[in-house]
Amino acid sequence: MEETDREAVATAVQRVAGMLQRPDQLDKVEQYRRREARKKASVEARLKAAIQSQLDGVRTGLSQLHNALNDVKDIQQSLIDVNKDWRQSINTIENLKDVKDAVVQHSQLAAAVENLKNIFSVPEIVRETHDLIERGELLQAHRKLMDLECSRDNLMYEQYRMDSKNTHDMNLIHTYFGDMQKLSEELAKQLWMVVQRSLVTVRRDPTLLVSVVRIIEREEKIDRRMLDRKKQTGFIPPGRPKKWKEKMFNILDRTVSTRIEGTQADTRESDKMWLVRHLEIIRKYVVDDLLVAKTLLDQCFPPNYDIFNKLLDMYHQALSTRMQELAAEDLEANEIVSLLTWVLNTYKSTEMMGNSELSPEVDVNSLDALISQNVVDQLLSKYMSTLTSNIIGWLRKALETDKKDWIKETEPEADQDGYYQTTLPAIVFQMFEQNLQVAAQINEDLKTKVLLLCLQQMNSFLTRYKDEAQLYKEEHLKNRQYPQCYVQYMIAVINNCQTFKESIISLKRKYLKLEMEDTLSSSHTSMDATLDIIAKEGCSSLLDEVFMDLEPHLNELMTKKWLMGCNAVGTICVTVEDYFNDFSKIKKPYKKTMTIEAHRRVVVEYIRAIMLKRISFKNAEERKEGAERMIKEAEQFRFLFKKLAAGSGEDTEGLCDIIEAIAEVIKLTDPSLLYLEVSTLVSKYPDIRDDHIAALLTVRGDASRDMKQTIIETLDQGPSQPNPNYVPIFKEITVPTLTVPKLLK
Known about the structure:
One of its GO terms (biological process) is protein transport. With 745 residues, this protein is an all-alpha fold.
């Protein structure tokens, strides 16, 4: 207390010191004293009020505690009295057991009396209910059935309360109401028939469907009430819970599954398009049914049934099951494509689940896949395997058909530009196009795989095509009169090569992504090379045909008969021109090559005729006459091939110049200049050999052995400066029988 007083004094001193810091504040001392006095009086008043309030609360609490103590004493006394009375009444309670049994019996009898009317009228109510069910008055029938069930259940419950182990009486009640169970089953059968046809019923008689739903809802409420009573009493009537709501959804589920499975109207044996028809019917049915469910069926069911989404799940599951069943069958290639296209594309497209009328209830992005990716991969693998076999078979069949055309006695068809062709390229690439278009319906990856497969099989096919063209040529050589249109069909084969090239490029441009082109460059190069070989061999075989006809006339060259003025070269030119009238049906890339090759071979054969030494000129006059004839015939060849090569840009001069150069050697009148002329010839055509020079000098007829040897030896020692643009021609020409050593002996 003293410590508190000291702290108070110290605080007061500090406060006064704070007020009297300046001399002028001494004048206000009285004012300060009055203000502090007021504050002190106020604090003391509040303190007194607080203490008084606390004292009042304590007084009230003490009073309540006193009253509580008295109440506790009273209750204690009352409990003592109750306990005393209870002990005295134990014997009395035991004497009331008979009263208790009477009360229970009275309760049962009261229930029996209450249901007495229904009990005696059960047979009649059963008949009425049966009639109502047959007439389709399901709500009224269910009302009567509920009354019967209520009577039975109440009686059985009272019996259960009285003696739960008395099964005899329970069975007696159950037997008496036995027909009621049959009525329940009959009514349920009618309900399930309506549920099965709900999508039809909702359009024709929605009231009937609503009645069915109301009956199911009633039964659901009774089920819940009976289950609650079972928890309390342990009793539940027979046949409960009926779970008609659950059964209704099961019926709907089976109905949906049956509807999906039942859409297959055809088999593969009766209709090749059975799967396409089956899938299209499914699509139409599903869309129609879901639209009906959304617009009409949803209004006939309570919101908590969520009937549309339930049906959507059922259809999705039924479709998934059906698609898996179809995928497990032994499908053909086109059927696999139809199935995958439907599953991967059609199902979520605007034609089906993506239909604008089904949104927003149906979100295609939330729908699961109908079949797993593993099944999809298996189907694609099977499709590629089957397609490979099919393409091989189709290509083989197409080639066999084309080969049959080759032996026809009528010319092949011509395209719009007049070039001969067969139907083979069109058939092959139409087949490729169809398969690629089909694959593109599924996805880009499959389209690329099919394109790679087509080009791969095309590569193998072209090898067989080349072999067949070679066999065609060999068969013709056995009998040149057969086939009658050999030349025309060989031209068609050559033209097909160009068509194949163009079609391959077109196919790649249309179906192959740019980034994939590098992966096919080697394959494309290989196909181009094979096609060029086929075309080259075809052109060569046609030229062989020409030169077989020219052979008798070529044999007349550089003979006495030729020198005397036979028209062998004229006949050769006419024959070549006649053949090239047919060769005009060859497409330009190959026609140009063929013209150049024909020109080269004519010149080679002409030079070969010189080197065969069929004639040896006796004097200068014969040499002059022969040389001039050679120059004239070279000009004929030049004119002919210039005419044949018109517009092709071919250089027709160089080859015929060789004949003229040889003619100049033969025409030379001064033997002393012979070495110079021959050396000029050799410098222009460096592939000319010693035996060629010897044969040429032999044809001149005036060169001695020593002169031949000197010229040849001198030329062998001289430097050779070949023209880089010169294409060797003499290396193809052999000089028969006599060799240079024999000539020099």
